[in-house]
């Protein structure tokens, strides 16, 4: 699968011996929000805030701890192993980490155990397998006493607690959304380096309309025959396990259905498993199977009534959790072609969708996204409108894997592009100053634009929109998608990172920049260019809220370290000595919100909206 590509700083250097050597920059740590970084921070914080009573093993506030409470070690202290590895232990879960794991205390030592598939209040049987200083990773064995927080939630997958895919099927969806709000909060606390007053209250997590059957892409795999890496040709001894890795191992477990996949991908998984079994001898080694959903849509002849396929009734929480299309679904039929390829026909009052799938990375796959827009003047009672966009991409390229939330998600980003009106209790309409503030945003720059998701779905707001990406193939796909959707005010260019903003023709103060980087976030060269350009408004979309928090901290405070930098100490500051700060703009955060693209998992996406502070930052400030 082709992943999102990041803008990279040039690392080429001349090999000529005549070129004088320049002094090396100080090597610094640039946190990326990896699993280990997040665990290290949250374990250390938990140990610093709570203590264990040796007499009863209960968690208590460190300020009220009894005299015999465990003494917390300094970061440089030497740790002793809290338990024998591979020996089963009973543990009480007291906290859920941002990685989706349960955290438990050793009852006699100042130590944390990390156990998957467990939530606060659970008492579980676990088996330690890796000791890392002040914490130990464990395998989940079983739940001895379930937590009341499980609330009767029933996992819908028989492989749950064995497969590495999902973490939260035992947790009610409302609780999943609340936990993911906490992930965003902790990410900005630990990785942004910002003061509390610089970070607004995190808005409730927007839930996915579908909590199961939402993934439009699956990639099961299987290993090669024993000894396939040797020069001697290995032989298959029966059909291998086809599925996903077991939790905590590299061993593939056999999975014939995955309930978070869409209906057509469930059919496709069965079909592809049969195909592998029939053609097994053609595989010389293991392989990954691509399953990508594709939609063919035909609009029906309808009367003049309003279309019923808009997204206006999609809730931001799970109060009415279901796919809104279910409200108007007239029929659903499965069929199969002569070659045995399955398809599913969904009939709605206004259109018919034929769902198929492809396993060819170079084949095209199509999705439809309906974005709801709001009127420019909220004081006027003009109705919201909807527009449906068609996106076609190669099946192996990157595109969001949960179509059910893409409509509400792009609608939300659309409505963040223009600054909201300031409260006017004495007036029912916008004054001239507010209208000017809202109308001066005229242009969109979509960095990391890919195949044009934001450039196109936001284009109706702007005089002109420009998508930029380092991948020329994505740019070509974006241009074709603009043509398919009859959008004439959107253009696309592939640009090198070193000159990313050099080709932007828009006045910075009148421009919104949408940033949607890969998991590692933006590199420092990109952030420096962005701050020098000084867009009037920035919308930072991220699939890793920890690297997002780091980057937003740099947009707000710059690269220089402050006394309140939250990731000082063990996590060194992300500043090179002598980093130039002259003429760079700073930003302030307007809003922050999480989006649940992957229900039943510990993953959350984030959207942070920032406004430029209209004062250039000087090195002497």
UniProtKB/TrEMBL annotation:
Residues 1-28, 54-76, 301-345, 416-435 are annotated as: Disordered. Its EC number is 2.1.1.35. GO terms for molecular function: tRNA (uracil(54)-C5)-methyltransferase activity, S-adenosyl methionine-dependent. S-adenosyl-L-methionine binds at residues 400, 448, 469, 516. The active site is at 543, 543 (nucleophile). Residues 54-63, 309-328 have a biased composition (Polar residues). It comes from the Eukaryota. Keywords: Methyltransferase, S-adenosyl-L-methionine, Transferase. Belongs to the class I-like SAM-binding methyltransferase superfamily. RNA M5U methyltransferase family. This is tRNA(M5U54)methyltransferase. It comes from Lithohypha guttulata.
């Amino acid at each position: 699968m082709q992943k999102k590509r990041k803008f990279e700083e040039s690392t080429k250097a001349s090999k000529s011996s005549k070129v004088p050597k320049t002094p090396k920059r100080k090597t610094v740590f640039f946190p990326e929000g990896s699993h280990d970084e997040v665990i290290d921070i949250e374990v250390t914080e938990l140990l610093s805030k709570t203590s264990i009573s040796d007499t009863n093993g209960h968690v208590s506030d460190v300020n009220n701890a009894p005299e015999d409470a465990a003494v917390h070690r300094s970061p440089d202290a030497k740790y002793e192993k809290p338990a024998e590895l591979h020996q089963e232990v009973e543990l009480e879960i007291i906290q859920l980490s941002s990685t989706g794991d349960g955290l438990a205390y050793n009852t006699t030592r100042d130590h944390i155990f990390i156990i998957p598939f467990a939530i606060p209040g659970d008492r579980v049987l676990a088996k330690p397998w890796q000791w890392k200083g002040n914490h130990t990773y464990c395998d989940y064995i079983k739940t001895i006493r379930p937590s009341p927080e499980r609330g009767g939630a029933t996992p819908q997958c028989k492989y749950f607690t064995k497969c590495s895919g999902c973490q939260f099927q035992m947790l009610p969806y409302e609780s999943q959304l609340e936990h993911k709000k906490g992930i965003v909060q902790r990410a900005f606390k630990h990785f942004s380096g910002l003061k509390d007053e610089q970070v607004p209250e995190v808005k409730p997590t927007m839930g996915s309309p579908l909590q199961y059957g939402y993934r439009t892409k699956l990639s099961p795999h299987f290993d090669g025959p024993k000894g396939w890496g040797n020069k001697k040709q290995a032989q298959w001894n029966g059909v291998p396990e086809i599925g996903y890795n077991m939790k905590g191992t590299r061993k593939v477990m056999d999975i014939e259905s995955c309930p978070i996949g869409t209906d057509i991908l469930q059919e496709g998984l069965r079909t592809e498993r049969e195909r592998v079994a029939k053609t097994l001898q053609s595989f010389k080694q293991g392989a990954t199977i691509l399953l990508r959903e594709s939609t063919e849509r035909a609009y029906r002849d309808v009367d003049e009534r309003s279309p019923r396929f808009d997204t206006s009734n999609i809730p931001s929480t799970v109060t009415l959790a279901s796919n809104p299309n279910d409200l108007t679904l007239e029929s659903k039929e499965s069929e199969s072609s002569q070659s045995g390829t399955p398809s599913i026909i969904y009939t709605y009052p206004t259109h018919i969708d034929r769902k198929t799938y492809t396993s060819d990375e170079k084949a095209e796959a199509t999705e439809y996204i309906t974005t709801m827009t709001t009127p420019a003047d909220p004081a006027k009672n003009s109705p919201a409108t909807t527009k449906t966009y068609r996106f076609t991409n190669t099946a192996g390229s990157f595109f969001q894997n949960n179509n059910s939330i893409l409509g509400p998600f792009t609608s939300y980003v659309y409505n963040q592009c223009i600054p909201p009106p300031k409260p006017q209790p004495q007036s029912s309409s916008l004054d001239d100053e507010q209208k000017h503030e809202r109308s001066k945003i005229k242009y969109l720059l979509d960095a990391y634009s890919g195949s044009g998701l934001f450039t196109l779905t936001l284009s109706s707001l702007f005089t002109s929109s420009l998508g930029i990406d380092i991948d020329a193939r994505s740019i070509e796909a974006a241009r074709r998608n603009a043509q398919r959707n009859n959008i004439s005010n959107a253009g696309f260019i592939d640009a090198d990172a070193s000159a990313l903003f050099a080709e932007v023709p828009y006045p910075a103060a009148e421009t919104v920049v949408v940033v949607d980087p890969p998991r590692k976030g933006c590199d420092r060269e990109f952030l420096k260019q962005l701050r020098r350009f000084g867009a009037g408004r920035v919308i930072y979309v991220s699939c890793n809220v920890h690297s997002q928090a780091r980057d937003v901290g740099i947009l707000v405070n710059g690269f220089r370290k402050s006394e309140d930098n939250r990731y000082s100490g063990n996590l060194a500051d992300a500043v090179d000595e002598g980093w130039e700060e002259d003429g760079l703009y700073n930003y302030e955060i307007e809003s922050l919100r999480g989006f649940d693209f992957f229900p039943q998992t510990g993953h959350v996406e984030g959207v942070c909206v920032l406004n430029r502070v209209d004062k250039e930052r000087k090195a002497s400030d």
